[in-house]
Amino acid sequence: MAEGKKTRTTVVIYGQQYTISGTETTEHMMQVATIVDEKMRQISSVNPNLHSDKLAVLTAVNAVHDYIKLQEQYDELEKEFKRLRD
């Protein structure tokens, strides 16, 4: 996708329709929406009485947790790579 060119994509997350825009491909934005929808449904299945705003916050907390864990793994792999290279 061209640098700076924004694409608008309509997605459905947890039964609500959203139009999102970004410089990524439509496929990428749809994949992100699908993952968010799946995570919201997973959390909701454990606690079906959660109001949607709390569900959204818990989904965000889970996503950031996953991101931090992946970043930590990446940093460890990078250190190991440098150690092996040197």
TrEMBL record:
Q: Does the keyword Nucleotidyltransferase apply?
A: no
Assigned keywords, A-Z: Cell cycle, Cell division, Cytoplasm, Septation
- Pfam families in the record, alphabetically? ZapA
Cellular component per GO, a single term: cytosol
Q: Which Gene3D superfamilies match?
A: 6.10.250.790
Q: Subcellular location, in the record's words?
A: Cytoplasm
Q: Does the keyword Cell cycle apply?
A: yes
GO biological process terms held by the UniProt record = division septum assembly; FtsZ-dependent cytokinesis; septin ring assembly
Which InterPro entries is this protein grouped with? Answer: Bac_CellDiv_Activator, Cell_div_ZapA-like, Cell_div_ZapA-like_sf
PANTHER family of this UniProt entry?
CELL DIVISION PROTEIN ZAPA
Q: What does this protein do?
A: Activator of cell division through the inhibition of FtsZ GTPase activity, therefore promoting FtsZ assembly into bundles of protofilaments necessary for the formation of the division Z ring. It is recruited early at mid-cell but it is not essential for cell division.
Quaternary structure and interacting proteins, as annotated = Homodimer. Interacts with FtsZ.
Record-given protein name? Cell division protein ZapA
- From which source organism is this entry? Lederbergia citrea
